[in-house]
Amino acid sequence: MFLIMNTAAVREQFSNGYLLIATSGGLNQQRTGITDAVVVAWILNATLVVPALDHYSFWKDDSDFPNIFDVNWFISTLSKDVTIVKRVPDKVMRSMEKPPYTMRVPRKSEPDYYLDQVLPILLRRRVVQLTKFDYRLANNLDEELQKLRCRVNYHALRFTKPIRDLGQKLVSRMRKMTNRFIAVHLRFEPDMLAFSGCYYGGGDKERYELGEIRKRWITLPDLSPEGERKRGKCPLTPHEVGLMLRALGFGNDTYLYVASGEIYGGEETLKPLCELFPNFYTKEMLAGEELQTFLPFSSRLAAIDYIVSDESDVFVTNNNGNMAKILAGRR
């Protein structure tokens, strides 16, 4: 059997097979899945096929990997760690007696699980697809694998040039207005509120609208929405974010860049935050027509927000989600 774990450059001809990955969730959840996919490919000594992005979740974004990330940069940057290809070669697919074997591994699986449960199938079938690949690898890995995670997430996953260019333009426009600005990642969209299981005082209308999202997309444990709020388990409202910033000493002359999707409740929900901080900007306000080609694609819009948030002087979030964690590590 070939060596399974090797710190030397991996050559495709010595691979144990091809690993297909189907990611899940929004941009930053998928980013986590891509990062772990590379690590799993290294553990298995497998050739990784460029991961497939999620087209079917709540956001219904049909972007593929090359629409968001620089795929050639991704492949070349990691070439000394893992061999990555854009597709399984036709000759391999033609030689297979059966379609690729599809499986879903348990969440937060240890490397030994992949060696014991996935590797034998990979060696036998040559091509294995892992579905709904998010948080399927344990957090506590040895130092070399953690370093590989960092190389993937903070070096290999570079956004495409159109996304980078527009993101930097928005940063420059903020800098022309002020020397210092705060980026607020405001996750207060309908999906976030539905997934949190929280209640924000909107009465039957809120209960119905968020309940419909929950019924279609998620199954929540039996929680008390009001109780979750009292325990501090819910995303802060825009008004609460504003009050928190003022309490921290930021005056009403502070410039805010608000990174978000469509806020639940629209302008009415945002009004208290705008009153506290009138120098309030979003990508839609700063970009105008330049944003048109990105508008149908939530992940590309999230990538632009990521760039501006990364370049901000202060980064604040109303929840401890994927983007907050990734940017905390980055910064």
Automatic annotation (TrEMBL):
<keyword id="KW-0808">Transferase</keyword>
<keyword id="KW-0328">Glycosyltransferase</keyword>
<dbReference type="InterPro" id="IPR019378">
    <property type="entry name" value="GDP-Fuc_O-FucTrfase"/>
</dbReference>
<dbReference type="InterPro" id="IPR024709">
    <property type="entry name" value="FucosylTrfase_pln"/>
</dbReference>
<comment type="similarity">
    <text>Belongs to the glycosyltransferase GT106 family.</text>
</comment>
<keyword id="KW-0294">Fucose metabolism</keyword>
<dbReference type="Pfam" id="PF10250">
    <property type="entry name" value="O-FucT"/>
</dbReference>
<keyword id="KW-0119">Carbohydrate metabolism</keyword>
<protein>
    <recommendedName>
        <fullName>O-fucosyltransferase family protein</fullName>
    </recommendedName>
</protein>
<dbReference type="GO" id="GO:0006004">
    <property type="term" value="P:fucose metabolic process"/>
</dbReference>
<dbReference type="GO" id="GO:0016757">
    <property type="term" value="F:glycosyltransferase activity"/>
</dbReference>
